[in-house]
Structure formats: structure tokens, C-alpha cells
Amino acid sequence: MSELVLQCAQLSKVYKSGERSLTVLNDVSFEVATGTSVAIIGPSGSGKTTLLGLCAGLDVPSSGTISLMGFKLNSMSEDDRAYVRNQFVGFVFQNFQLLPTLTALENVMIPLELRGEKNILSKAKDLLGRVGLGDRLHHYPTQLSGGEQQRVAMARAFMTSPRILFADEPTGNLDEENAEQITRLLFEINREAKTTLVLVTHNLELAEKTERVLQMKGGHLVNERLTGVATHA
Amino acid sequence: MIEYIIKIKKVTKNIFQDPWVWKMAWRDGRHNLSRLFLFSASLITGIAAVVAISSLNYSLQDELNRNAKELLGADLVLNGTKKFDPEIIQTIEPTSVKMAGDADMASMVMFMNTQQSRLVKLTALQGDFPFYGELVTQPTNAYELVKTGRFAMLDESLASQYQVSSEDSIKIGNKMFKVAGVVQKIPGGGGLTATLAPAVYISLSALDSTGLVQYGSRVGYSIYVKTNSESQTKALIEKVKPLSKKWGFGYETVEARREGLGQGFKSVYQFFSMLAFVALILGCIGVASSVHIYAREKRDDVAILRCIGSSGWQAFNIYFIQIFVLGVAGSLIGAAVGVGIHQIIPYAFKEYIPLELNFAISYRAIVEGILLGALVSVLFTLLPLLAVRFVPPLTVLRADFDQVKVKSKARWLALALIILFPILAASYQTASFISGSLFTVGLGVALGCLSLVATALLWIARKYFPVRASFLWRHALSNLFRPNNQTRVLMVAIGLGAFIISTLNIIQNSLLNQVEFTGNKNQSNTILFDIQPNQKEGVVQLIKEHHLPVNQVVPIITCRLKEVNGKLVEEIQKDTTKIPEWALTREYRVTYRDSLTGSEELVEGKLQAFEKGKKDSVYVTISKGMHETLRVKLGDSLVFDVQGVFVKVKVAGIREINWPKDPPNFLFVFPTGVLENAPQIYVAATRVNDPQVASRFQQALVRDFSNVSLIDLRLILSTVSELFGKIGLVVRFLALFSIITGLVVLAGAVVNSKFVRMKENVLLRTIGARTTQIMRITLIEYGYLGIFSALTGMILSLGGGWVLTRFFFEVEFAVNYLELAIITSSVVLLTVFIGWFNSREVISTPPLQVLRKES
User: Fold this and answer.
1) Do A80 and B8 touch (CB under 8 A)?
2) Of the candidate ranges B111-120, B153-162, B706-715, the one whose mean pLDDT is the lowest
3) SS (H, E, C) B157-202
4) Domain harbouring A114, CATH code
5) Does residue A50 lie within any of the structural domains?
6) pTM value surpassing 0.90
């Protein structure tokens, strides 16, 4: 049995709005082994993005426990969870989430700069070259197309050589051609870096490229199946 | 696990150990430089005002310390209302010191070149005054000529006003004097003193020949002494002290003059520095408001940073560094501007400064200004920036994710410091914690009132705006309520400037209205005083000959208080009683009559006639103000020393007096039958409407009764008007800082909302709006903002002006609505211009550019 990178046990999330409360996640448990890839699918409002946020330590559950790389996220402060994210986690978002005031190169360098590491320029340039943006290093996000922005976001995600990568609808804002390129790159680099991948998507075709699919509905994990794909084979 | 967490804690870095936050601050800030600069621009005006005023204060203090003797002109000055007794002169030992003297009094002077006459301060000099400082005349030998006989020098402004040259003559009393020259500078004179009481200088030996000094004349005598050493001065003061009480004169030392002037300047400085401080606080509010929006806009960026591992404090530090650096930069620029203004002051306001100042750069003021600027830029931006620490990283996934309100110690600390800062800063400025606290509370109340008025105006505008108005007018109004528009902050900031200016205007008009006599046909506007009893009939005849009404001819008797309720004045002075010294020791000018005049009303008691033969039946009436000052009530007894005769009286009535109405008015009025035989002079009052008749009448008066002086109340009106013009200029200059700060905040707000505006305009263009329509909407929007801001200030100034005129100045509340309309229009035009100037890009940006940016 491979080492577990992520363990979720009986996760629930309830949002309170005035006197009303809304349960968006209810008693969800699953585990993710190191080096595997998992897709979380489900209709809008099924709780998949909430689940991703909890797994990545962006929020804490109302009940249940999350262990990421052995860290019990629900008992840690926000700043400590930020530290864990910086050390072990990479992100790719549907709307890219690049800092508009930084160039592509600077955006990619940030995570390692945050760690205080030196001599990171060449690594950032290499990664941007790897995603096909070697000639766009000093462009700002507004000067790049959607596909290019997402590639910068991917380079940033892999900059820290994360142990686990969370991707939220990574192709959701892209046209078919760009989506295909991003998907290819995502799985290629992921395979090269031997990173664990957890992605949330509506796109079944994309989900089928992972090893395991978790299906959410109404805040519950209703189905779990293996796709037969071996990501890091 | 615990070990892991401990390890995580260890890597926490403070702002100085974390180069990444500095790098990020620069990377992020370089794209917002112009916008961030606008934040600090609000600070620049405030710091500039503070540095300029502080520098002026330090220059004045330095000058006072260095040249105090020049202000007095001597080491010691004795002042009295009688000629100095030989015993006093002997005590001074004229052989061991240098002595000079003067006598001054109010007198009429006729300018022979134009045959015009006016009341002046006549100063008769003797000896080599001044011993310190300069008597600058034009020509330089003018004073030497004056000493030789019937020559006179005039204050430069007076000579200029009456076009008097060295060839002309003036008539003083019953003698002609040739003009020897003009006085450009004299210790203790010039500036505002010359505006209030322009002086004519003659020699003391020539004064007697004028026939002006008669019984009842109010003459002030001074002796100036120059000693050989400090110790001699001290010894002389010790010798003079006991004589001072015996002979009833005062004395002034260099130290006392310095302290007195220093105290006077301190009050003026405190007032102006408070105005500058208001501009600074306004700037701070502007900065805080802009940073609040800036921090809110940075929420998404912070969420990304948090997502990839930045701590809350790191995110805070990035924006804190930006704001702090710009705060320091703004303070530096503000200090530089302040120094520039300080250098202009001697040229712009030289009339108000009685000293030749050394306008060296005050490094203390600069350092204080920079520290103050850095401090306020940190303090007032802490609250919005601290909120950045709690931006949840989940925002990257859900933009609508509600931030949980976190109770933070840092936030409470920041709040406490923000409240404490104005109190401490104002206490520092006023050198008094109580004054500082009161000022802060006052400022808080003023800003609160402005904010309330602004809120009410906006509410009314929204609620009652005509729905049938055209689209442009309605849309422009709704733009004021755009999120992050800072409309209320702008209304308060600009409104405060308008408030200061219009309040000053209201007070000025109310005071001028008080001395304006054109409204009441029967009211006296010309007062004749120092009429000797044997001249009374002649003066009345002269008035009648000129077909003028004789409104009043009243006797005046001078006397002093001896006892109050059986207690000697000297005993009362020793008491801890709160009766002021001046009220006990002053010379009272009283009259006698058995009736009230039109300007009086008996509010308590009754008029009681004197019963012949009953000495204890002298019942006087007292003015309401003096009744409060002396703390006497009906039935209380007073003893007056009337030229050496003690007269016991009882208070029978209290009169409320409308002082400016129908002068002269009196603090004490005796019944007839008591003072008729006491030495007395007369005052007559008449009304002259025609300036030509006034001129002829004054000429005849100076010719026939040269010792009689005439006060032309119209002249006082023009003097008050001139004085207000000068003081008003300084206050307006400082109030302008508030307006400028408000406009800078406005420019910042326009830049802040630029992209939102662009999107709105694109939408309007998409549905068919033309550029001119968008331009009109923009102009109307800023027109509304200007009107609402000005109205905010106006409404409050009408209230504040009413309170001040009614209770502080105790005059009738008078408003010149035309002038208020001009102030309003100026504020509106300025606001529209600044709004339009900063919106040019918004109006001219092509829609496609915005749409591409959006997509």
C-alpha cells in the first residue's frame, strides 16, 4: 500500500447565513495515496469545490478531520496552514488567479521566494519554457491570453515541486484547443514531477484521465470508481 | 505533530527579516504609483500647513528671544496716566541712566492740503527714544527736525492715505505743524497697530503749546530707561516697585514684554496651528478612506498570496510598506512645500509681523512634520490594512465568500491609538492636555455634525429628487451613491473648508453690521468728546449751525472704585475672589441723569431719584455686564472716589445696554443732583449723513474747538473692515488648506473609481450615449458633489455663526447671502474642475479597450 498524502474523515461543512444554515458537505470520507490522481466530479452545488478547499487547507470543516502530509489541518491556524500549502501544495484555478501587477516570471517565482530560497530565476524560466512561454517571461497577465495565463499558473503550481496539486476546473475558462493543451501539459508535468493530483471538474473526459473518480451529489460522496488509468506508470 | 508546529512558528519573520515583502511591495506598488501618490497628496497639504505654521512660530520665538529689547525700545518703561512726579524721576537717578519719554493721546488732526481731518493717536516724543531697535524715518533726519519745534511725523500709511508730503502742514490742537517726514518703523508700532490707531508724532515740548491737554483729557505718559547693566535694571525695578503703588503707574520690563508678546503670538499660533492640524486630520481621513478602498480591491491578490503560502502578516506588510514609504515621501514633500510657504510668509503677511524675522529654515519644524506625517500615515491606514490579514484564501475559489469577522488585538490597539493620537498631537500643539482634549472633542463634534448634515443632504436628495428630471440629471445623482465613491468623506472634507470660510464671513458681516449706522436714520454716527464745560454751548451751537441733530450732550465724570459692599478694593484684590483686577482698579467714566436712553432697558430694579439732604440715598444703575463682573446685586453698596471725594452709592437697577446703539453709553449712571459740582467734561453725539457736511463740520470743529476730538463711526467701520480684510486673508489662506485637502481626496476618489466609471460609460455608450452626454453626466455629478459639499459647510456655518455671534461676540446675527453664494459657487466650480480634470481619461477611453480589459 502506498503512503497516504491526504486523508479526509467524516467531513462536513455548514454555512450559516443569519438563522439559516446550509449544509454543503455531509459526512465525506476518502483517502488519496501519494503519486495518484483523483478527479472529483458532480453537478453544480454538489460540494466539490468546497471539498477541494477543505482538502487544500483553504478552509476548515465544521466537523471531521483532514490530514494533509500528516498535518491535521483542522487543528492548525490559518498561517500554519499557509505554511503547509507553501511547502507541499500546488494550485491551478479555473480563473487562473495570477497577480495582475506581477509579470509572468515574477508570478512563477513567488512561491519559492516566499520560502526564502535563492537562485530560483533559472528554475522559473525553465518552467515557463516548459509550458511554452519562454518568450513571454516579462509580460503581465493582462497582456496574455487565457490559455497563456493558465500555463503561467501551472508553472507557478509546479515551481515548489509540490507533493500534491489541487486543480479547480483548470480548463473551465478555456476554449477547446487551449483546454486540450493545458490538460496535456498538466498530466505531463504531473507525471514528470510525480505529484499527487486532485482535480475538480465538470468535464468527464478530463476526469477519465485520472486514476480514480469520486462523484459528489448534494454534499455527499455518492460514488467512487477506478478508471483504469495509471497516471505515473 | 507538536514539534512540527513549533518548527513552523520558528520560521515566522518580522518585516525587517523578510526581504520578500519589500520586493512584493515594490512589484505591486510600481503599477499603482500614481494612485498611491494621491493617497500621500492628501497628507502633503496637511504636513505643509503644519510645517509652515511651526516654522513661523519657531522663527517668531527665536526673534523674540534674540531681539526682545528692540520690542520695548528700552530696558524699563514706566507707564502712567499722569505726569510723573519728581519723586519718581529722582528715584530713577537720571544721571546714572539714559532716559526718554513720551505722552500719547487721541486727538483730531487736520491735513491742510486737503482740509480733511481725522482722529489719530498723537504721540509726543522726548529724548533719544528708542534705545534699542530702530526708529526708521523718511527722510532719515525727520526725528531730529521734530525735536527742534513744530514739526510732525506721520505713520507711513496715514501719510499715504491723506497724500501728505514733506511740504505739507497739519493742524494739531490750535497749532500748525510742518510735516517733517514719515515713520516707517518704530518699536511697538507699525503693522496692525497702525491700522487700528494711525499715529502722528511730535515733540513732547510742543505738546503743551497745542492746548490739547486739558482737564479730562486721557493722556498716557511713558518714561523709557536705558540702564548700563542687567543688575542696574534689577535694582531699579526694586526701587520703582513701591512707588508704582504709591503713584499709581505701571512698569514694563523686557522680560514682561517678551512674555506678553510671546503669549499673544502663542495664542495666534495655537489658533493657526489648529487650523493646519484640521487640514492634516482631513488629509488623514482622506488617506484612510482611500486605503480602505485600496485594501478592499487588493482582497483578491491577498487571497492568491494566502493560497500559495503567504501569512496574513506578510500580506499586511506588503501594503503597509507601500503606504508607509509613500507616507514618508508625502511628508518629505509636504515639509518641503511647508518650508516654501514659510519663506513666502514674510512677503505675504509682513503687515502682521511686528518684527523683522530671520526666516532661516527650521529643522525642528521639518523633523516634526516628517515624523508627524509618517506617524499619521501609519496610524490612519492601520485599520483598513489590518483587515487584509484576515482575507480568507478560499476567496480564490469563491469570490462571494464572506469574511468571518475576527476579533484582533492589533485592531483594538490601532483603534485606541487613532483615538489617542489627535488628543496627544493637539495637546502637544497647545501645550495643554485639557486644551488638546477639548480641541479633539470639538473637532470630533464638528466632523460629526458635518457628517450628519452630509448624510441628511444625501438622504433628502435621494428621497425627494424629482423623478421627472431628465435622465442626465437623475443618472448623475445616482452616481453619487456608487459603491466606494467616498461621497460623504468628500462632502465632509470640502465642506469643512467651506464651513471655515463662510463662518468667518458671517462673523465679519455681523460685526460690520453692528457698526454700520446707515440703516437707522436717527442713530448717532459722530461722537464729540473732551468738550470742556465752557465749550458746551458753543459746540451745540456749531452742531446746529450745520443743521445736524443734537442727539445727546452728556456730562462725564471720572472716578474710581474705593469699596464694594464695605470692603476696600485693596482687600478684595488680596482675596481669592474672582472679580478681575481691571474691574476694581480701572478709571470709570460715569454720567448722571434720571431717565433711560433709547439704547438701554432696565431689566432689574428701578430708577430712584436722589433725595436732597439724604447722603445715603444715592441710587445708581449698573450695566448688566458690569453687574456680573463685579458680582454686585440690587441693594449692594459701592463707594466711588470722585476726584478725591468719596461718594457712597447703592445699586438700584440693572440696565441691559445695546452698546453700539446710540452712543455714548455708560457702565454706571448716577441720579441728578449728586455729581453736578464735580469736575466734568461733556460728550455730544450727532448724526452726519452727507460726507461733505461731515468734512465741513470737522474743519469748523478743529478750527473753533481744537481740543475737542471727534470719532467718526464710519471711519471705524472702514477700519474694522480693513482689519478683517487682513486677518481674514490669513484665515482664508489656512482654510484653503482644508479645501485643497478635500480636492486632493476628491482626485483620489475619482482615480479610485476610475475603472468602475469606465465600465459604466462603456455600458452607456453601448446603449447609445454620446460623448457629450457622458461628459455632461460627469460635470453634473461633480456639480452635485460641489453643491452638497458647500451646502454642508454653509448649513453648519449658519448654525455655528449664529451661536458665535449670539453668545461669543454678542452682536446681531447678519448674513450676506450674496457673499455666501459666491463662496458656494467657488467651491462648486473648483469641485467640478478637479472632478472633470481627473475624469478625462474615463470619458475619452474607447469602449473596446475596456471590454478587452474586462474579458
Assistant:
1) yes
2) B706-715
3) HHHHHCCCCCCCEEEECCEEEEEEEEEEECCCCCHHHHHHCCEEEE
4) 3.40.50.300
5) yes
6) no
